[in-house]
Amino acid sequence: MSDLSRLLKESWSIVEDRQDKVGGYFYARVFLSNPQLRDLFPVQMDVQRTRLLSAIVTAVQSIEDPDRFNEYLGSLGRDHRKFQVEPAHFDGVGDALVEALRIVAGDQWCSEYDQAWRDAYQAMAERMMAGAEADSGNPPLCHAEVLRHERRSRDIAVFTCRPLQPLPYRAGQYVSVECEYQPRVWRTYSIANAPSDGGELDFHVRALGAGWVSGALVRRIKPGDMIRLAAPMGTMTLDRKSTRDIVCVAGGTGLAPIKALIQELIKYNRTRWVHLFFGARNRDDLYDLDELNRLAAQHPWLSVVPACSEDDGYTGEQGNICDVVTRYGPWREHDFFVSGPAAMVKTTLRGLTELQVPSVRVKYDPYTR
């Protein structure tokens, strides 16, 4: 581990249990220095602060992996074009971040930590600006018309939209979405289909508690409504050079990117077996199982194993999806794709480590679905 990585992780551990304070201080300083930016963000900043802290943690964790670091920060730079972020804003943002960390850490902060975060932020900013510049020929966001909307359960909906201009992406990626019912509030959702000639995009959404955007996308939007989409992000994509068989682990609406990957495989796969494990709390949450079984019947290389964790009457596999995957192993020679709620992803990654699956063969995206 390099000195920079060690200092970043060591200093972050000091403030980790006070992340909310870091986010609060950070945005207060940013908006004080750039009042014009405040109107681009939602009134309630709780989720935005969480996303900021998730981005910081992901960047810190990947700083010793140049490819992952560059890809993640480049995608973040493209995504932030929707906030009209310009190169001139980056210096002030870096100062705000270091100041927030210093204030929350208090007496435990030192000059070495200060310099490490300034060096790390400079690298992050350079890659974000490079990503934004590389995408400058495309609009920072696009409008899309909702074509179809279907409720699949009490709190899950599947809808289809068509962007008004082309939106290039790869199967497995996700985009930030904003709707007219919650302006300025952006949430990330995976695209649930592979790119097609018609340009249509499918989304699977679960209404999460009092979630403003998820609730609107499940209960309020209808055909004819317009939504806004930002630049595609994410690295949970297929490596066509790999010949290894595949295991996909999906929890709830984390099925969305997995389904897109399967659709892409349908176009060219002839040699790789694909094992899909689809977990939910109860049978009603297995909202797309009929379609998955249809695909499995059409393509012999695809098998589907559904499981419920909180449905005693369910006749199929029962238990947490990670435990179900373990029962079907061994999997050491397979490529893995994992998608779902943050806790489920974390548990599955830990389980795969115990099964001695090499981490380089496991793809997932670090955001809560």
Automatic annotation (TrEMBL):
One Pfam family assigned to this protein is Globin
The EC number(s) this enzyme carries? 1.14.12.17
Q: Which cofactor does it need?
A: FAD; heme b
Q: Which UniProt keywords apply?
A: 2Fe-2S, Heme, Iron, Iron-sulfur, Metal-binding, NAD, NADP, Oxygen transport, Transport
Q: Which residues form the Globin domain?
A: 1-133
Return the InterPro entries for the record.
Answer: Cbr1-like_FAD-bd_dom (IPR008333), FAD-bd_FR_type (IPR017927), Flavoprot_Pyr_Nucl_cyt_Rdtase (IPR001709), FNR_nucleotide-bd (IPR039261), Globin (IPR000971), Globin-like_sf (IPR009050), Globin/Proto (IPR012292), MRET (IPR050415)
User: Which stretches make up the FAD-binding FR-type domain?
Assistant: 139-239
- Which transformation does this protein catalyse, written as a reaction? 2 nitric oxide + NADPH + 2 O2 = 2 nitrate + NADP(+) + H(+); 2 nitric oxide + NADH + 2 O2 = 2 nitrate + NAD(+) + H(+)
The record's listing under Gene3D superfamilies reads:
Globins, Nucleotide-binding domain of ferredoxin-NADP reductase (FNR) module, Translation factors
Instruction: State the similarity comment.
Output: In the C-terminal section; belongs to the flavoprotein pyridine nucleotide cytochrome reductase family.
Any idea what this protein is called? nitric oxide dioxygenase
Q: Which organism is it from?
A: Rugosimonospora acidiphila
